[in-house]
Amino acid sequence: MTEERLDVEMTVNGVPRGARVPARRLLSDFLRHDLGLTGTHVGCEHGVCGCCTVLLDGEPVRSCLMFAVGAAGHAVTTVEGLAAPGGSPSPVQRAFAECHALQCGFCTPGFLCTVTALLRDRPRPTDDEVMAGISGNLCRCTGYQNIVKAVHRASELMAEAE
Amino acid sequence: MDFLRPVTWAEALEVKAERPDARPIAGGTDLMVELNFGTTRPTALLDLTRIDELADWERAGERLRIGAGVSYARVVGELGDLLPGLAIAARTVGSPQIRNRGTIGGNLGSASPAGDAHPPLLASDATVEVESVRGVRVLPIDGFFRRPKVNALAPDELIRAVRVDRASGPQQFAKIGTRNAMVIAVCSFALALYPAGRRVGAGVGSAAPTPVRARAAEEFLSGALDWAGGGPVDEEVGRRFGALVAAAASPIDDVRGTAGYRRHALAVMARRTLAWAWHDYREAGTACA
Amino acid sequence: MTDVTQGNAYVGARAPRVEDGRFVTGAGRFVAGVRLPGMLHATVVRSPIAHGAVTRCDPDAALAAPGVRAVLTPRDAATLRLPCISTAPGQREASYPVLTEEIRYVGQPLALVVAESAAAAEDAADLVELDFSERPALVGAEAALATGAPLLYPEWGTNLVSEFVVGDADAAAAMADHVVELTLRLGRVAPCPMEPRGTVATWEPARGELTVWTSTQAPHLARDHLAGALGIGCDRVRVIGCDVGGGFGAKEHPYPEEVLACLATRRLGRPVTWIERRGEHFTSTLPARDAVHRGRLALDADGRFIALYADILSDLGAYPASVGVNPAAVSALMLPGPYHFDQAGAKVRAVVTTTTPIGSFRGFGQPEITWTRERLIDEAARGLGLDPVELRLRNMIRPAEFPYPSRTRQSYDSGDYAAALELVRDRVAARAAATPRDGKPRGVGFACHVEHTGMGPSAEMEAAGINAGGFEIAVVRMEPDASIVVSSGVCGMGQGIETTLAQLAADRLAVPMDRVKVVFGDTAYAPYSGLGSIASRSLTVGGAALIGAADRLRRRILAIAAHRLEATPGDLEITGAAVRVKGDPAAAITLADIAAAAWRGRDLPDGMSPGLEEREVYDPPANVYGYAAHAAAVAVDPDTGKIEIEGYWAVTDCGVVVNPTIVEGQLHGGIVQGIGMALTEEIAYAPDGQPLTTTFMDYLLPSSPESPPIEVELIQVPSPVTPGGMKGVGESGVISAPAAVGNAVAAALPHVAGRITATPLTPYAIWSVSRDG
Q1: Interface residue C640 vs chain B (CB under 8 A)
Q2: Which domains are seen in chain C, by residue range?
Q3: CA-CA 20 to 30 A from A132: which of A8, B191, C374, C385?
Q4: Does the distance separating the beta carbons of B181 and C763 come in below 8 Å?
Q5: What is the per-residue pLDDT across C225-279, written as a single tens digit (0 to 9) for each?
Q6: CA–CA separation, C153 vs C175, rounded Å?
């Protein structure tokens, strides 16, 4: 039994990337194993925990619930691609560190991607919008208290930067 | 496992005719979980995400045709005024990430008794447009769900779209879960009022082997509401309506709750959604007057 | 006691975490990111039945599958066992098998398939042919003791593993004006770190050395136990703890899968990785709690506590695993909490059932007993018509009474228990008064606990049957360029220990924090730690060791400087990267000069050996006891039974606070874990032993909407025991949270308050008690 392998190409963090992979390769595994981008974490493989959240054409999706081939031709942003080109952390990354919005750091990449998209769509979110916006990412360490603060702080940092 | 990736609808139908064993996959929010857990090992997958015509909805007068590939996020964002019941339900699906990927067609394809889109589609008299190389069939949603996770599709058919009239009156949806986000409903309920026809639609989820319509409850309430005067709903009417909705269910005991609790909760949701919807109806009446 | 205010005042500062730079950029090194050339992937074949035996295990079809390199079956691992860290009186086995044909729970490992890819291993796992003989399942601790119950170990003649008494046995029968009795249950829950367990093992035949990367809270303990199980010398096994994506007790000891991965790499000569799937987590990673307490509180007519008794029945699952009965023993030891009792005692019984063995989870027996004690107190207050806060205050241990010997052999070191409870009461009273007029019943509940932390004195642990030392070692080195390296035996799993140890070192040595590097987790260079980062001990015990080592190094630096400056050490201070004569800033020598000289072995005082490195072993003379008072405000939907937590308050004393931001974060997380236990989380089994909650859609961790705004306040009563004054706090948040929520629900539903006895309080559960009440 030989498995069908496909050439999968996509833009990852602004750079064209590709690999020849089995059709059933998950996007999360493609990013982690084939491209070496291990910042995207896998916490449940059934689309609940949100650790594997990446941006697909700017929208947050579960990379464990997609085949890599399904993302072919699209643009994917992972945690490794959130910082500015010079490497300076994004407002969301800065705010998470500033507000102690992470402890073990395992869920953090997923939250950072989710919040990046949330603040793009709603630059000044209400508390309820923040709660709803991050409701698809589980964190076992922080009780979400400082994550909510960090979203508001990132919103401030983005406003200051403008 | 073969991975089949048609780019047109016609091609998809041909592939499905050749490979009836191929499992259709759109957002993947249900099927991918089964694949990752190894609970299903299909011989082939039929990826529908590249077919543009599935990803749009269109409106002709009062009639809406929602492509099977329209995501929950788009239902929330674009159909909130036209189909408020479906939009409320879509807002409760999974998580933002799941709503970006999960589709109406996928929900119908999975045919889970807990599918969040099903009760509002039942309440709003939707039909399901299915197609194969043999032609198109339009199936009433009532008969679409056959058994848990089994629908009325023939092996060579694919879901093309959902057809439904835009809301002609207030619509509501309620769901009870142990957690607020990312939860399988303990039970759910959708209500639609049709002021012109002086009737109501009522759909029940997670409380029977398939999503079901509460026919007796619909008939009772249609006759019991003061459509003309917009007078308040008698408490006894609410209770009776709730009891009839609960009677339409045939729930089970499981880790989320007993059958008794589900019947009770359905009655509560039926009364509450009725109160909300009737409030909207009276407000709308006042506004017009 | 040592001066805690010296140096750069990093102690007490909200220093940014040094860990975060790597975590916010995706550069954390977690075990699943470890890739070695030629690495093979393993998957575990698990039992689909709860009880019985394997009658046939045929790996041939799996071995013939594409990419499969090995299938390990019980026969390959017949002699491999892992030891119990603690054993209880009467416990017959002090170890457990890694792979066995005797099946006692669904999910028990039966074979390991090793293949070129994870997908190939998983495909082949389905091809391992297994036949079983089945026996009846046994679910529930009470059922285990029933006449005619299926026996898991027929040779024992009983399912009872251990039975013993702690404290005053006669508290059970104490006479008093008022007696409240309740049977209370804290359900079975899972620690559920977001990072699943995982391991990468590689055997290098030429060196005869095994290297293991693993997600662990205790690298040395993992090393010792893996070496012991495999029959390899400890000197030939290196365990490298990675960044750990949450532990909470679940990762404090090695599991069978880690042994099997090591066995596989030894057989195959190639690296082998096993990464836990979430779908197997709920049956393979040890869950916790699952205790039934029959509690009895006796009071006199004035509300004075006369006696507290708990009959504790613990469901151990299939066998006493790593910590076995110990959580139930800790429940008994911490029974009295912060109150006086004339008598307090507990009977502990632990039984086996056909479910996954239980283990450690943040709190370790303390949430269970706090649930019992604090629920009893609230029902007593209700019965007596007393304010529950007032009743607690009347009975609290006062500051003048420390050290306070509890009726259950604890010696509380310090605290101001009443101050914390009064403060939390004031905070609740001060909240925005605008209660929504939606007709929902609302209630506020309080709970208090004393937390056993800083484990612990090695001699005391020996007496308690815990087979590990409780000391910590720290090594502090000033490098030739005056940068500082701290090596510790504790390790990081999100609790910020890398930051707080750096703060302590920077403070003691009066250098900027960015000159301090903390290293731990690798047994090749970290000092030995028998327990690792468990039991709220990392900062208390590891930090105390570090303070000792840093103080020694400071004295050494000052001695060298005194020699060079021809001054006395007492006249010197370290400031601005130099040692200066106080009052004569021109008379100075830079730390870099001192360090360079020390490492070149020149210009040293007579008799001083070269180098700038100091080591301290700290074996605590006693345990130290944190304390907290919590309050929760809830609203109950009377029709659906759904509970919403509208506010949460915690006042916590953990002694000297090194980093308040980190402490608050620990408390937030613990509290929400406790809220999860109270409201949504439960590992449930069907009567046939099949697990009902095996995914994140069945086992419901709190998501952001379940997480109420939490107000945390810290009061600092320094521990007189710990150098530096710290008390542990890692577990504090979770301990009182279920009880505070339960008491709030009971206050909201007074007509059925006596029936609020079991977690989780799901909508269905609340509806059930309300309907029948």
Answers
A1: yes
A2: 20-28+471-618 (3.30.365.10), 34-135+195-245+251-284 (3.90.1170.50), 288-457+621-772 (3.30.365.10)
A3: B191
A4: no
A5: 999 999 999 999 999 999 999 999 999 999 999 999 999 999 999 999 999 999 8
A6: 40
For the residues C492-509, what does the mean pLDDT come to? 97
A interface test, pick of B40, B97, B103, B184 with most A CB neighbours within 10 Å = B97
Residue C248's closest CA among C432, C495, C3?
Answer: C495
Fold of B2-46+55-165: 3.30.465
Instruction: Tell me which long-range contacts A69-72 makes (C-beta under 8 A, separation of at least 24).
Output: A69/A6, A69/A8, A69/A21, A69/A23, A69/A25, A69/B3, A69/B5, A69/B47, A70/A27, A70/B28, A70/B47, A70/B49, A71/A8, A71/A10, A71/A27, A71/A30, A72/A8, A72/A9, A72/A10
Domains and CATH numbers, chain A: 5-81 (3.10.20.30), 91-161 (1.10.150.120)
**DSSP letter for each residue of chain B:** -EEE--SSHHHHHHHHHH-TTPEEESS-TTHHHHHHHTS---SEEEE-TT-GGGG-EEEETTEEEEETT-BHHHHHHHSTTT-HHHHHHHHTSS-HHHHHH-BHHHHHHHT-TT-TTHHHHHHTT-EEEEEETTEEEEEEGGGTEEETTEES--TT-EEEEEEEEPPSS-EEEEEE-SSSSS---SEEEEEEEETTTTEEEEEEESSSSS-EE-HHHHHHHHHHS-TTT-PPPPHHHHHHHHHHHHHH-----BTTB-HHHHHHHHHHHHHHHHHHHHHHHHHHHHHH-
Neighbours of C154 (CB within 10 A): 9
Flag whether pLDDT at A2 surpasses 60: no
Amino acid C96: pLDDT:
97
CA distance C700 to chain B (A): 7
CATH top-level class for B171-288? alpha beta
Q: What is the value of pTM for the model shown?
A: 0.97
Sort out which chain C residues have CB atoms less than 8 A from A33's CB and list them: 35
Which of C374, C447, C440 minimizes the C-alpha distance to C644? C440
Helix (H) or strand (E) holding C463: helix C458-463
Compute the average pLDDT of residues C755-768: 96
Question: For residue C248, what are its two tokens?
Answer: 């909470």
At B180 the pLDDT is 86
pLDDT at C91: 95
The ranges of chain B with pLDDT < 70 are 286-289
pLDDT exceeds 80 at position C5? no
Per-residue pLDDT band for C432 (boundaries 50, 70, 90) equals low
Mutant choice from A40, A55, A65, A115 vs B, greatest count of B C-beta within 10 A:
A65
Percent of chain C whose predicted confidence (pLDDT) is above 70? 99
Give A102-155 pLDDT, tens digit per residue.
999 999 999 999 999 999 999 999 999 999 999 999 999 999 999 999 999 999
How many whole angstroms separate alpha carbon C681 and alpha carbon C698?
9
pLDDT of C435: 78
> Per-domain residue ranges for chain B?
2-46+55-165, 171-288
Contact check, Cβ <8 Å, B101/A65: yes
Over range C380-387, report the average pLDDT. 97
Is it the case that residue C623 has pLDDT exceeding 60?
yes
Place of tokens 């945390």: C712
Chain C stretch 143-162, residues whose beta carbon is closer than 8 A to a beta carbon of chain A = none
Task: Give phi and psi for C179, each to the nearest 5.
Answer: -135, 130
Best mutation target, A67, A114, A116, to test chain B (most B CBs within 10 A): A67
Q: In the prediction, which pLDDT does C4 show?
A: 40
A134 to chain C: nearest residue by CA? C704
